[in-house]
Amino acid sequence: MAITRDDVLKALAAIPADDSGTTLAASGRLSQVVVDSTNRVMFSILVDPREAERFEPIRRKAEGVVLAMPGVSGVFASLTSERGPNQAAPAPRPPSPGAQPAQPRTGPALPGVRHIVAVASGKGGVGKSTTACNLALGLSAQGLKVGLLDADIYGPSVPKLFGLSGKPRVIEERLLAPMDGYGIKVMSIGFLIEPETAMIWRGPMVQSAITQMLREVAWGELDVLIVDMPPGTGDAQLTMAQATPLSGAVIVSTPQDLALIDARRGVTMFRKVAVPILGVIENMATFVCPNCGHESHIFGHGGARAEAERLGVPFLGEIPLNMTIRETSDAGRPVVAIDPDGPQAKVYRAIAAELWSKLAGAPASRAAPRIVIE
Ligand code: ADP
Predict the structure, then answer these.
(1) Which residues fall within 8 angstroms of residue 360, CB to CB, at 6 or more apart?
(2) Quick one: fold of 113-360?
(3) 86: buried, middle or exposed (CB in 10 Å: 19+, 13-18, 0-12)?
(4) CATH architecture of 5-80
(5) DSSP readout, 219-286?
(6) Do domains 5-80 and 113-360 have the same CATH topology?
(7) How far away, in angstroms, is 131 Cα from ligand 1 center?
(8) Which of 150, 327, 329 to mutate to test the pocket of ligand 1 (most atoms within 8 A of CB)?
(9) Does the beta carbon of 283 lie inside 6 Å of ligand 1?
(10) pLDDT digits (tens, 9 = 90+) for 178-197
């Protein structure tokens, strides 16, 4: 059954665009509706960037209504601010496989926060959270104002890494105070859900969880907000990367080949949503025997650096496989905080300095891009 533009407009006619009852169809905000030969429907809604947040539920509703029409095989609805508010929205670009993404962008940047950086890994267990936490402390040691947002919905570990427990204080309706972890403002999904609760995260829940933790926490003025991402490169991670106004991403990997394949997927994921890769970190690189000082490379060595070169992204440094790092992490006393001049802290601080030099040259946190790949 062929879908016509009129069918789509009829379906959209019922959706209110504001409190006065003006419908989306009558609001002048709808672009031309495009229906392709496979009955995929594309349209965009014209908004001022400041209205993006208010219009996101309307966009989702519009998408849902059209998707529910018999015969429709897919919908791509975007918010756009490409034209002035008095002009009709431009026709949307149809998504095509491999299309370069990130236009148009939506989702406002976070006021007061200069840079938001995702720390991600292709898979779990590579030391992503330990690295995120010590990097945040390394940035703070440089005199920067730093926040750490634990968005690892599958296994939030930042409360444990910082030895923090309890619920965040509610400052006012819909505003939480972050916790203090060695001078860093910390918020974790682990403070908000019961640690033992098994949860199945669906796309909209992931998006609303990250949005809440970003926007309903009193972060105040920050130079950098580090986001500890859930490991992996699936839909949840992609949703999160898309919903967060990131300045860039850091990928943590161990040196062995299998981990590097996953790290490569991580780089690809961020590229899909046009988030710059600030660099790759090799974790658990060299092991120095605490008894005899002999160096061994339990997981291999140099793989992440070589992979970074191959992918054309910066290499930020390597962190040794070290007992002190593990013990301090697991005891809730991160090494950079408790032994800031020790050898392990020096490694993290050097990587943090390298990261900051990359950030200082990067544009401040941007509105989150929307993906245009289906
Ligand atoms: P992820 O966030 O990738 O799942 P974690 O940060 O939770 O990984 O680390 C997994 C385990 O590895 C933890 O027990 C942590 O203490 C340990 N670990 C992480 N990095 C190192 C390191 N460089 N040396 C020794 N142990 C480490």
Answers:
(1) none
(2) Rossmann fold (3.40.50)
(3) exposed
(4) 2-Layer Sandwich (3.30)
(5) --SEEEEEEEPPSSSSHHHHHHHHHS--SEEEEEE-SSHHHHHHHHHHHHHHHHTTPPEEEEEEEEEE
(6) no
(7) 8
(8) 329
(9) yes
(10) 999 999 999 998 898 776 66
Residue whose token pair is 């970190």: 281
Task: Quick: pLDDT tens for 223-277.
Answer: 999 999 999 988 888 888 888 889 999 999 988 766 688 888 889 999 888 889 9
Q: What's residue 198's pLDDT?
A: 61
Residue whose CA is at the smallest distance from ligand 1 atom 24:
321
**Token pair recorded at residue 110:** 């976070």
Which atom of ligand 1 is the closest one to the Cα of 152? Answer: 2
- Tell how far the Cα of 187 is from the centroid of ligand 1, in angstroms: 20
What is the model's pTM? 0.72
In the chain, domain spans: 5-80, 113-360
Task: Read off φ and ψ for residue 263, nearest 5 degrees.
Answer: -60, -40
Q: Which residue has the tokens 């593990």?
A: 326
